[in-house]
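Slide 14.
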Amino acid sequence: MVNELKCKQETRRMQMRKTNSLLLLAAIMMCLSVPLAGADVVIKGMVTDSAGNPVRGATVKAVEGFKSVSRFSQKDGRYNITVAPGTYAVTAEAYGFALKRESVDTTKGEETNFRLASAPLSLERLSGAELESLLPNSPDAKLLAMRCNECHGFPTILHKRGLSAEEWKSFLPHMVAGSTYEPFANATPEALTAISTALGKYFGPDSPYFSLDAEPVDLNKIKHVDLSDEALRATVVEYAFPTANAKPHSIEIDLKTNIAWFAEESYFGNNLVKFDINAE
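Slide 15: predicted structure.
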């Protein structure tokens, strides 16, 4: 009688294990067959020129809210960007081509292709190194590179291009408008005159490249370096800064918690910022 009872109990346990196994298998099959809500999706497509030839090294950027993700087109012109589901403003640009924009709704699952047209060079789209390559190897140009690259770079100078030497001299002591310390507030008259004269010469109204009415720059005169195959595999993720007119400073990453800490260099903000890399 005892043995019969034990046999029945064991039979019931085996049936329960079989039922649980079937339920687990069903759950797994459902997970495999039905996409999980919120799972990442891929924005992909091809970048070509106006003749349909693939464009290598184009920067394709997807922007939504405070975050942007950029990747590069490969040798065959194809690109892919992994993002969360949503609607993105996507741009494609390449050296020597005009920028193009598309609005992409990832729920449609369609490829986003870009056909770029050749265009005159836009100075605003050049890197600091490319802008610097247009300057001569002279003492005053080296002075600009030394002083201006301490905080920003030549792309920032373009915002005020066209100013005369006297206008630069008036602007420099107050150029950050109180957001942080003024680099030239206590400059000697000689130092201020030297930097203002150089700025007026190379970024003033008569500058051959950087004046407001200068002729378009010949691409062949710019030292442009194509991205390596290794760099083309990179993913660039950027985030909008919390406080306007502030800069990140002293970034530290806690590898145990994957938390980034950095300071805001600005009198407007001057905050210590905590950034959770996992949660963004």
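Speaker note: The first helix runs from residue 2 to 33.
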